[in-house]
Write a structure and sequence with these properties.
single chain, mainly alpha, Growth Hormone, Chain: A, two-stranded antiparallel sheet, globular, transmembrane transporter activity, transmembrane helix
Length: 411
């Protein structure tokens, strides 16, 4: 394994798998047509999206446990195939309970099973480029809607929403399976030999490895899980409602709104890579502080200027920032608690994200429904949440000595 594994092949394959399971971020494209077909209320439909993300900690922790023991290939394969199948059968749900069960519970379990294996396994191959690797690998998840949103909209218009679910789900199950054939498990502690990229040898990694019990005893854990939740809240709000926000507040057509979903996804993907690389240079917590400040700016713009250009700027900024949060936090967990138990440890910290995923879409849809499609009050809620996250990030930075840049720390 250590003589034959090319870490970049594993990275690209993991990105491909998450590109398939990341179709969850196109759910706002399906929500309106599904409500029209079944006669369900949009807030009730969005509850399925909330459940899909909220179940995340269970498969993340379980999948992370198995990934830490060398089962990454099988966890990724099982997860992406089952997710594709569950997405296909979502369109066949005839009751809201079936929607919650198939898309929310079953789909959420499968998606996060694959996510856990791909992320926790791949990041171990890149101890020298944690931010960049994490950004690239999670970029696969964020980039899915760039391709999927316009395809989904076209399929819905031509075949109906049920067939769109069916066709896209089965296609992604097959594609994801093919990518999983190239996944290999990483040693717990490695460093690459850049002169021979195919060779990986064990090395000592700075920082003590902590198991989940030791992690829970650390004050840093509680700061990280809250910061993660508060940072992800705004991104999940937009991811689950971008199409509806564009149509109800800015007068966009369904096809134009789908294009903005793709724009958000492109920004989300770019943000994971960009902020991951930036965090390797200036320090992760400094990057987080800048991200939270930019989120506040974006929402102030959205509530202050009701123009198409402001929606575009807001979508791009929030997408970049959501991507940054998702790209940086895996590395923050590894820096604090070591690589050996990254699968389980990140799975537990991921509870922060899942909590936000359960609350944000439901709160957003409910506030919009209560205000005739106006999302302004939801935007104010997001500002308050991110302000709290910014405060906690400053506390964390102070506790870590202002977070020296990674380049300085490596010297």
């Amino acid at each position: 394994m250590t003589k034959e594994t090319n870490r970049w092949v594993v990275l690209i394959s993991s990105m491909g798998i998450l590109l398939c399971s990341g179709i969850v971020y196109t759910f706002s494209v399906f929500a309106g047509p599904l409500a029209e077909l079944r006669g369900w209320a949009v807030p009730d439909i969005m509850m399925a999206f909330a459940l899909n993300s909220a179940v995340g900690p269970i498969p993340m922790i379980f999948g992370g446990y198995l990934t830490d023991r060398g089962w990454a290939k099988w966890i990724a394969r099982i997860g992406v195939v089952l997710f594709g199948v569950s997405f296909a059968f979502t369109g066949q749900a005839t009751s809201i309970f079936q929607l919650y069960l198939i898309y929310g519970i079953f789909g959420g379990f499968a998606q996060n099973f694959a996510y856990s294996a791909c992320l926790s396994n791949t990041i171990r191959f890149f101890p020298d480029k944690k931010g960049l690797a994490s950004g690239l690998i999670t970029g696969g998840m964020g980039g899915a809607a760039i391709i999927a949103a316009p395809i989904a909209n076209a399929l819905i218009e031509r075949y109906g929403v049920s067939q769109a679910f069916w066709r896209m789900g089965l296609a992604y199950a097959l594609i994801g399976f093919c990518f999983s054939l190239f996944i290999r498990s990483a040693p717990k502690q490695i460093v690459p030999q850049e002169a021979a990229a195919s060779e990986i040898v064990p090395t000592k990694v700075s920082g003590a490895n902590k198991n989940w019990k030791e992690m829970l005893a650390s004050p840093a854990f509680y700061l990280l899980i809250l910061m993660f939740a508060m940072g992800a809240f705004s991104g999940l709000m937009i991811a689950s409602n971008a199409s509806l926000i564009g149509q109800s507040m800015f007068g966009l057509s369904a096809s134009a709104a789908a294009a903005y979903v793709s724009l958000y996804s492109l920004s989300n993907t770019s943000g994971r890579v960009f902020w991951g690389a930036v965090s390797d240079r200036i320090g992760q917590i400094r990057a987080v502080i800048i991200i939270y400040s930019a989120i506040i700016f974006a929402f102030v713009l959205l509530v202050s200027v009701n123009q198409i250009w402001s929606f575009a700027v807001g979508v791009v900024t929030l997408g970049l920032c959501f991507g940054g949060v998702m790209g940086i936090f895996p590395g923050l967990v590894m820096d604090n608690f070591g690589p050996a138990n990254q699968g389980v440890n990140y799975g537990i910290v991921f509870i922060g994200f899942s909590s936000a995923a359960f609350v944000a879409p439901k709160v957003t849809a409910s506030l919009a429904a209560a205000n005739n499609g106006d999302f302004t009050k939801a935007f104010y809620v997001a500002i308050a949440v991110v302000l709290a996250g910014l405060g906690l990030s400053l506390v964390y930075a102070k506790s870590k000595g202002a977070a020296k840049p990674a380049v300085e720390a490596a010297q």
